[in-house]
Amino acid sequence: MKTAITEMFAIEHPIIQGGMHYVGFAELAGAVSNAGGLGIITGLTQRTPELLAKEIARCHDLTDKPFGVNLTFLPTFSAPPYPEYIAAIKEGGIKIVETAGRSPEQYMPALKAAGIKVIHKCTSVRHSLKAEKIGCDAVSVDGFECGGHPGEDDMPNMILLPRAAEELKIPFVASGGMADARSLVAVLAMGAAGMNMGTRFIATKEAPVHDNVKNALVAASELDTRLVMRALKNTERVLKNAGVERLLEIEREKGSKLQIADIHDEVAGVYPKVMIDGEMDAGAWSCGMVVGLIHDIPTVKELIDRIMVDAEQLIRDRLMGLLGAESKASLKVA
Ligand SMILES: Cc1cc2nc3c(=O)[nH]c(=O)nc-3n(C[C@H](O)[C@H](O)[C@H](O)COP(=O)(O)O)c2cc1C
Question: Following DSSP, what letter does each residue of 190-223 receive, concatenated?
């Protein structure tokens, strides 16, 4: 399948694996790229730019296909050394960067000078238009369903994607709630040029995380995510667990007076405990509502092949099948 996104990133299928803290290592990014999608290494999971350079080199050993790096611009006072991370990305020969969090405006000149294509992930039409204005090549439009940070507008993809299509000139992919061929065909119909998946890719054989995480995703339903940190305007969608229940209890007690320090134990340092040690009650970690559509743990290639085969069948059999004989004849597919 050819779309503006497969052309822009020189990939076979319009499927991107979004950056994921403590999940987006070389093993997963390499597997996604080898399967014809776009794998993405999560930059800030590597604690230093030197470690990121090593992770990029490891991924080059695993695949000859294009892969990208995610750079998340955090709302923090002690910002990571972004220019050094960008230097590691450039020296690693990376040509695609997924930015997220705050606007990448400040870093666009450096990224563009390095010949890097930038896809910015954002949760609103206004932020997408800003990304277009500052020279991003594409956007990843992230609906309210998404795992991670859905923003504060609470706009689901059924509305957000067609609105993005109405306003944007640059191509966009749909992010949040994407799991299978039905997701892909639906978002193509709404104007997207592909889809970005996070949570679905965690439940794959190659995702380098503890089996407890994968099994928890298969066991969970679409009712099992919670929104945390709303009072801090840093909303995150996470999988419910005992740590998250504690966190929500503190949030209820403190109300609008909540400070990040109040929930430190439930949000800080949680990822390695969950993803490496498999401590499923450790606290808040991102997970999308799409968890309700995850029923197995295939290889990345099985997952991507299945999506593409089923998508073609959906278009040919289900959608074309809905057309009358005259329309079919005019399309020469009867
Ligand atoms: C465990 C996990 C960690 C994530 N970490 C990051 C991150 O560090 N940076 C980022 O930009 N997005 C992060 N995301 C968001 C994903 O890149 C993607 O936008 C999101 O998962 C899409 O929604 P979905 O989970 O419904 O597919 C994370 C998502 C998950 C599930």
Answer: TT-S-EEESHHHHSSTTS-S-HHHHHHHHH--TT
| Residue to mutate (ligand 1; options 286, 287, 293; most atoms within 8 A of CB) | 286
For residue 315, report the distance from its CA to the centre of ligand 1, in Å: 28
pTM higher than the cut 0.90: yes
In the chain, which residue ranges form alpha helices assigned H by DSSP?
Answer: 4-9, 26-34, 49-62, 82-91, 108-113, 125-133, 157-167, 181-189, 199-202, 211-219, 242-254, 264-267, 270-271, 300-313, 320-321, 325-331
Q: Is 23 in the pocket of ligand 1 (CB under 6 A)?
A: yes
**pLDDT, tens digit (0-9, with 9 covering 90-100), for 223-264:** 999 999 999 999 999 999 999 999 999 999 999 999 999 999
- Counted residue by residue, the chain has a size of 334
Ligand 1 pocket, residue 42 CB under 6 Å = yes
pLDDT at residue 282 tops 60: yes
Does the structure show a pLDDT above 80 at 332? no
